[in-house]
Design a protein that fits this description.
This protein is mainly alpha-helical and about 90 residues long. Helix content is about 45%, strand content about 5%. The chain has helices at about 10-15, 20-30, 30-40, 45-55, 60-65, and strands spanning about 5, 80. The protein is globular.
């Protein structure tokens, strides 16, 4: 299966709520690069940004982040470039 990647819950929620990286970062007052790094699990989210992201996306922090403050991986398989769940 080509084009299958791990996707984070944060990315699914962001896309599902109609936010681009740029629009969400503007809402939070941070750079799009920071949001992309957190979403892609290349960087831990510090407490204030975890709180801001959870409020903006309308979920509890524990739904977005693991114990180490990295974005949680969504369950299921997803095709690259799309956020539609195609199975378990």
């Amino acid at each position: 299966m080509k084009n299958v990647k791990k996707i984070t819950r944060m990315e699914l929620l962001r896309r599902g709520r109609g936010y681009s990286l740029e629009s969400l970062s503007r809402k939070l007052g941070v750079s799009p690069g920071l949001v992309a790094q957190i979403e892609g699990r290349h960087r831990k989210a510090y407490p204030k940004i975890r709180e801001s992201l959870s409020i903006a996306l309308g979920v509890e922090e524990c739904e977005l982040f693991d114990r180490e403050s990295f974005a949680k991986i969504a369950r299921g398989r997803f095709h690259a470039g799309r956020s539609k769940n195609v199975g378990h």
